[in-house]
Amino acid sequence: KAGVTQTPRYLIKTRGQQVTLSCSPISGHRSVSWYQQTPGQGLQFLFEYFSETQRNKGNFPGRFSGRQFSNSRSEMNVSTLELGDSALYLCASSHITGTNPYEQYFGPGTRLTVT
Amino acid sequence: QQQVKQSPQSLIVQKGGIPIINCAYENTAFDYFPWYQQFPGKGPALLIAIRPDVSEKKEGRFTISFNKSAKQFSLHIMDSQPGDSATYFCAASPSHFGNEKLTFGTGTRLTIIP
After folding, report:
1. Nearest residue, CB atoms, A102 vs list B36, B43, B100
2. How far is A80 from chain B (nearest CA, A)?
3. Are A89 and A76 in contact (CB under 8 A)?
């Protein structure tokens, strides 16, 4: 099976712009979670989608949003970018049902740099 | 109450030694505890996970020890190799449907020297 894929892998944006990141989960996985990884704050949970519905949300401002499509692919959007949004954005997928429902598998991430 | 505390921050071990990384949690709702390995430029890879109904789990050279009463768990790497040099993260989450978000420790940078 192919793993979790994320596009683009690298992105450079300017303060004030907006950005959309994409994630394709492992085939058959219906839950997609997004995490932000920075050297200072570590890995922090952004939100999780299951069956096109946001089920959980972390402590991030409303500038961070996401959605999930009927094929389980997910996008996250960050509006009005700030310098502090520079980070590695990771997507993880999980099956939710089956033998190991809570195992989350991560993609390679999108490295976002805000200048 | 959501924190997972991980130590040490960095660790240097000679090849063949047994590095041990420790984590502690407070939230009693946590009942799924995975460990992830991350190499530079890559996403975290799931290594091994444990639930509170067992005190130890082994997969290959990786072992998790779990102490439910102390709310602590640790990762041991047997016969460590230079290729094990990476950053290791412990994590925890509730495992009931609808609330599976992972809370991560701060990471341990492990270096195995030949």
Report:
1. B100
2. 26
3. yes
Report the mean per-residue pLDDT for chain A: 93
A59-62 long-range Cβ contacts below 8 angstroms, 24+ apart: A60/A36
Q: Which residues of chain B have pLDDT under 50?
A: none
Q: Which two tokens stand for residue A61?
A: 């401002």
- C-alpha distance from A55 to closest chain B C-alpha (Å): 6
3-state class (DSSP) for residue B84: helix
pLDDT band at residue A2 under the 50/70/90 scheme:
confident
Q: Six-digit token pair at A78? A: 């960050």
- With an 8 Å Cβ cutoff, the interface of chain B facing chain A consists of 32, 34, 36, 41-46, 49, 89, 91, 93, 95, 97-107
With CB atoms and an 8 Å threshold, state whether A104 touches B100: yes
pLDDT of residue A100: 63
Tokens of B62: 């990786």
The SS3 call for residue A22 is: strand
Which pLDDT belongs to residue B95? 73
Q: Which amino acid is at A37?
A: Q
Bridge partner residues of B113 (DSSP): B14
Give the count of beta carbons closer than 10 Å to the beta carbon of residue B74: 18
